[in-house]
Amino acid sequence: MKLDSSNKLNISGDRFSVTYSIWGSEAEARGIASAIRVEETAEFPEDLIGKGDIREHVLGQIVDFQHVDGNHYQAVLSFAIEITALNCCSFSMSSMAISA
């Protein structure tokens, strides 16, 4: 059973970005970035999220992914401002470092 998101959400379209430093292979780093975008928003298995506003507007988006050097990658993820309940304490760091 998939999460039904047929109800329209009141999403402003305003987003904020967080830069993550990730260490590992490119595939591992991309996988971690994708896992973060879901975990920081839906906290629900992505394959159970159907089409609609949750998938299109609430899930985090990978807006940039760059190879820095060696096994170091940088991912910029954007999030709908509404996921913070207008309180950015959980995203108080401008960047985060993660290792695979």
Output the keywords.
100 residues, alpha/beta, Alpha-Beta Plaits, 4-stranded mixed sheet, two-stranded parallel sheet, 20% helix, 39% strand, globular
Q: In the CATH classification, which architecture applies?
A: 2-Layer Sandwich
Basic shape: globular
Strand order in the largest sheet: 4-5-2-6
Based on CA atoms alone, the radius of gyration comes out at: 14 Å
Supply the helix-strand structural class.
alpha/beta
Percent helix range = 10-25%
Total strands? 6
Q: Report the major sheet.
A: 4 strands, mixed
In CATH terms, the superfamily is: RuBisCO large subunit, N-terminal domain
End-to-end Cα distance: 31 Å
Number of domains: 1
Topology pattern, helix = H, strand = E: EEHEHEEE
CATH C-level class is Alpha Beta
Point out poorly predicted stretches. Answer: none
Assembly level: single chain
Which range does the strand content fall in? Answer: 35-45%
Number of helices: 2
Overall pLDDT metric: 82
If you consult CATH, what is the topology? Alpha-Beta Plaits
